[in-house]
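Hi V.,

You were right to ask for the full record rather than a summary. Here it is.
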Amino acid sequence: MSWSKRHHPIAPQGGTALAGLAALLALVPLTLVTPQVAGAATASLSAVNYHSAATLTGPVTVGHIVEPLTAQPSELAANGYVEQEFFASGTATAFKPDSMPSDGKWTITPTTTASYKTRIIVRRPSDPARFNGTVIVEWMNVSAGESAPDWDFLNPMLMRDGYAYVGVSAQALGVNGGKAILGSPGSSAPNGGLVGAEPARYGSLHHPGDQYALDMYAQIGQALHAPHQKALGGLKPTHILAVGESQSAFYLTTFADALQPLTNVYDGIFIHSRGGSGASLAGTSITSHRGPDNLRIRTDLKVPVFMSQTQTDLIQLGYAPAQQPNTDKIRTWEIAGTAHADAFTVGAAANLLGCTTPVNSGPQHNVVQAAFTAFDKWVDNGTPPPSPPPFTLSSTHPAALALDAHGNVIGGVRTPAVDVPVSTLSGAPAAGSNAICGLFGSTVAFTPAQLASLYGTQSNYIAQYTKSLDKAIASGYILSADKATLLAQAEQVPFPA
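Predicted structure:
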């Protein structure tokens, strides 16, 4: 795996592996505490304009951009993409719940307002003719420094297919800084946020607290719809889609149930690796005061909602009690052989995290790209994505996954990784793993004797793998663009002579 280390004053200075390590920690679904909140709000509301739009200014050229932490090289220029940064400002509203039923049909009341000024990162095709009409707006993750995990998961598909992308610094810690529950990798000092990292560029930013983040995110989405705004470089979007992974997925769950019905600002919502609950309207930790632990997506939304879930999400993050049937507006793909984070996201930094056994090497990123492609088509022309069965549970209280003779999960989205296996792929913590490595699951490779028993020869294995891969592609679970790469990986599986 190659590692990207772009200008990022928040990142540790000990080299690219530690920068990747910080990016991995940012995926961990733990909220941050003690953010340095500026500009606390106060005014009570009697009415709310749910169609307010943020004011977008820029592009920002002072100082240096602080890029989201990543373990993946973006290679924007090589893919014909440009990046610019804009500031988004306005007056946001906080809310309190009137009711929070588990069916997601929440009712809320506005409480206070506060001014805000945050940043958005825009990545778009340099040639407008390549733009496919869809803008994805990622609620960036702040679990240990700001990262954009869905930009990483969804590429190279996003740039190959001509999407425009907007990453939003939606939460207070990303802007103002604060002490992360996981700490700041490589430093004992609190995270200084954008303001502390590059004051010449970001000194005017202020975030009033995460209780305002939901409305800020709605207002930024509304601004991107405006026909004359400059942030998209003159591109005219057909659809604007909300995306978020891990902690951000908790927030998007709450957004879908509480804010989207009032604003209708996003044309679809892609929720990636959520737990059983949503984020609190009060902006407090997602580990407490968050509402029911079996929270579903409300079934009366006007737009499609897609949920992509791993084995870890169902059990360790508690999503299993929140499982719900697919409808004409709701789809869930539970991806067999996957963990919340994995070898794709952790790469060579696994040993730096203290992982003593191989982490999950399942095909989550391949399936997520196919999932988002199907989701976008669903939004665009109404063609529903495939509706795979959920994982089979061997127990519901407590929730436990049913496993086959090889230890791989039964049900869910099927790929050659589990149907023509060469290893046991688990989302559960490996024996003796620490809390962080436990989210990366495990890979236990089959012995040469097992491989010989199952397939006889490598050529027989490749034949079966190819047949299964073609089936997954035909089913819509893998993109045809990934076929050659996956086949090349299969050919590297060592067989006994």
